[in-house]
Amino acid sequence: MPNNEKNSSTPEEEKIPHAKLRIIIAVLLLIFAVGSITYGLSKAIIRQPGWIEVTTTKEKRTGAQDFVFQYNIGLHGVTASAEYNELQTLYTDAMVKCYREFNNDKTFSGVHNVRYINEHPDEVIEVDEVLYQAFSKLDKSGLRTLYLAPVYDEFDDIFFVGSDEEAYEYDPVVNEEVRKRFKKMAEYAGDEKQVQLELLGDNKVKLTLSEEYKAYAKKEDIKSFIDFYWMKNAFIVDYVADIMIKGNHLAGFVASVDGYTRNFDGTNEAFNQVFYDLVDGQYYEAGTMQYKGGRNIVYLHNYSQSQQDVYLYHETDKGAIYSRFLSEEDGMNKTSKNDLLLHSKDASCVDMILAAIPVYVTEDFSADALSELSKDGIYSVYCQDRKLYSNDPDVNFSDLFDRDGITYKLVK
């Protein structure tokens, strides 16, 4: 039978040796659905070696509820407790920084974050290096996704309503007025003469707006001109992973609820990643990708995969599902596949989403475009007509769906 609720793909009869724990990345879906296990925050607790979830401390807001950081402690010649405490400090500091810097909802004293920039157009502003580097990556990509902030702000409300009647005010598919407004906003966003975040060097930026756009923004009550939106967690996952790698902590992974995983394991540990296929409103565990050691993963999907991510999607009374992937062309929600997984040993999560936007945030799927990405070490997994396609020869697949007359076949 197809899955109506996602579970771990680990076979019940499988015995996992204590000395060689096989971490199943797909278990994250279950972790997010039922809540993370609390291991306690007291530094006096004696920790045992092995895989454990590292949590942030509770002194400051971190936004860490949408992330999981797992680490195999006790491998580096220090006590497990001491290593955990060091990891927790690094993780907490990194998450606090990201929560503040990428925030477009509020400002913080002494922090020139995304919200602050939006509130101070046409001013030269010095930002933190992590934010400047994020802006630089987007600028080099040539994409204008950052500037769709006005559309993001309005469309995002649809994820917090229930009925179609409530959603009508924000739904560009059924509401022509909304559709025209989104298209107009997208036109402004796509024109660098109307809006442009100038990168001035030395971590200084300037959000430049045309007089025409300012007048339009005032008329439409637009408060945001830039926002990372659905891309934000990819930048956060990358930043946390880079902090750990810089500190020579090379036995773990950090993942977000919306599908970004930075696995920086350097111990050649074995990992699994379940891949799903949504067909006619039912999702199937098409197969399980198996790999060893560090590998970064971006799992893009246009429907909810756990209780934790339900606020990222909206389902209409007729079964249509809206997600946060909005097109630069007209501000409409578009995806070329229900499920698309990208993975790489070298490319970061941000590198992969920037490469994926032209391929995924569109109505036209292109297998050839994915083949081109593989030349840069970005490999893909997707399904078509009950076939699971993979273009990376170094990964294997197991547990291909085969029951109730439905069979998936692997194509490499």
Would you kindly provide a brief summary of this structure?
This protein is α+β, with helices and mostly antiparallel strands and 412 residues long.
> Hey, roughly how much beta strand do the residues contain?
15-25%
Q: Helical content, roughly?
A: 25-40%
User: Low-confidence segments, ≥5 residues, pLDDT <50?
Assistant: 1-44
β-strand number: 20
Distance between the termini: 26 Å
* Helix/strand/pairing category: alpha+beta
Radius of gyration: 22 Å
Mean pLDDT: 91
Describe this structure in words.
By secondary structure, this protein is of the alpha+beta class. Among the domains are: 36-102 and 230-267, no CATH class; 114-227, no CATH class. It has helices at 27-34, 80-101, 114-119, 129-141, 149-155, 164-167, 176-189, 211-220, 232-246, 349-360, 367-374, and strands at residues 23-24, 50-53, 67-73, 124-126, 195-201, 204-209, 252-256, 260-263, 270-279, 282-292, 295-301, 314-315, 321-322, 339-344, 379-384, 387-390, 396-398, 402-403, 406-407, 409-411. The strands form five sheets. Strands 2-3-7-8-11-14-15-16-20 form a nine-stranded mixed sheet. A four-stranded mixed sheet has the order 1-9-10-17, with no helix packed on it. The protein has a three-stranded antiparallel sheet with strand order 4-6-5. The longest helix is centred in the N-terminal third of the chain and has 22 residues, at 80-101. The protein is globular, with a radius of gyration of 22 Å.
